[in-house]
Amino acid sequence: MSWFSRGIVLVCLLLLSWQLYQHGGYFLRHERWGWSLFGILFFASLLYAVICTLLGMGWIALLRGLGDRTLASQLYVIYTKSHIAKFLPGNIFHYAGRFALGRLAGVAHAHTTLASMGELASLGLMAILLMLFTLPRPLVLQHDAFTWAAGLFLGLLLLTTLLILSWCRQGWVVRFFENRLGMQFTVPCGYPILLGGLGAAMGHLLFFIAVGALTLWLANQLGGAAELWPQVLGIYALSWLLGTATPGSPGGVGVREVVLVAALSQMMGEPQALMLALMLRVVTTVGDFGFWAGGLLVERVNTAVPVNTMRSHRDM
Q1: How many Å separate Cα 9 from the centre of its chain?
Q2: Measuring CA to CA, which residue among 227, 222, 231, 200 is closest to residue 56?
């Protein structure tokens, strides 16, 4: 499987390289090439770094629903530090980083496991939900009733999963993970998990909408059509989903770009779509490092706060 996924990434990178070779003249002649382009990329990267805060808040919401009492600022630092590890080969080291850093901060492995699984499920469901409401579908599925029925089904599926987890403290769900992972789970009864999961899902949906809007803004800088905004939102969600589902693609490199170029070429032309995909890769990469730097700043502020003050806030 690892060789297969690496092969997919290699093919995607070769396709992108060939397209760059074909349209190299367009990039050299483009009127935006220069300091104005660097200004656009820098501003968009800052926005993306801020938008990534929604991902950290979603993860914190899941941990809060599981009963974790670690300071939110500490959890945020853990998320930002581990987030940058997604660029390592394998596309899984950001999850391993959360385990290691979380353990040092006193976060139970069981909580980290459930929160990571919940995050993946929530991001996937929100991406699919956004795609249902924005992307064109085959003729048999174009009726509005299908869209609302599918959206309602996904929403009910999320609610049902959260309710099962919140009601089954000693049930088969918890016992399954305890037996498989060898961890002792302490899942609170009632609705904390439900509220945490809904909060995370809302944050993840806002993340996709915000990054989709940022992608649309970049497209408009290249002469894209503003009336295509619903499709752009769905296309970004699709590219993110496929990039994340490819294990050998660190940060979705190659896969997301190919999806964006293939889907946007008919809307704005292949050279513009290729340039947009490359601009978005620069923005997300620099923005991820900005998100990481913001976490370091929060950590520095935390170290300046007296320990007694931090403990008093934790007990509140």
Answers
A1: 19
A2: 200
**Residues 112, 113, 117: CA angle, nearest 5 degrees:** 115
Domain boundaries of the chain, sorted by first residue: 2-24+53-315
Query: What confidence tens digit (pLDDT) does each residue in 85-137 have?
Result: 877 766 677 888 888 888 888 888 888 888 888 898 889 888 888 887 777 75
Spatial CA neighbour of 59 closest among 73, 75, 74:
75
Rg from Cα positions in the chain: 21
State both tokens at 283. 């923005």
CA angle 124, 134, 131 (to 5 degrees): 15
pLDDT tens, position by position, 226-278: 667 778 888 888 888 888 777 666 666 677 888 888 888 877 777 788 888 88
Calpha distance 248→275 (Å, rounded):
24
pTM for this predicted structure:
0.76
DSSP the chain: -HHHHHHHHHHHHHHHHHHHHHTHHHHHH-TTTTHHHHHHHHHHHHHHHHHTHHHHHHHHHHHHHTT--S-HHHHHHHHHHHHGGGGSTTS-HHHHHHHHHHHHHT--HHHHHHHHHHHHHHHHHHHHHHHHHHS---GGG-SHHHHHHHHHHHHHHHHHHHHHHHH-SSSHHHHHHHHHH-----PPSSSHHHHHHHHHHHHHHHHHHHHHHHHHHHHHHTT--GGGHHHHHHHHHHHHHHHHT-TTSGGGTTHHHHHHHHHHHHHH-HHHHHHHHHHHHHHHHHHHHHHHHHHHHHHHHHHHS-HHHHHHHHH-
Instruction: For helices 255-268 and 270-304, give the axis angle rounded to 10 degrees.
Output: 130
Residues 59 and 245: their CA atoms lie apart, in Å, by 19
What is the band of 21 on the pLDDT scale with cuts at 50, 70, 90?
very low
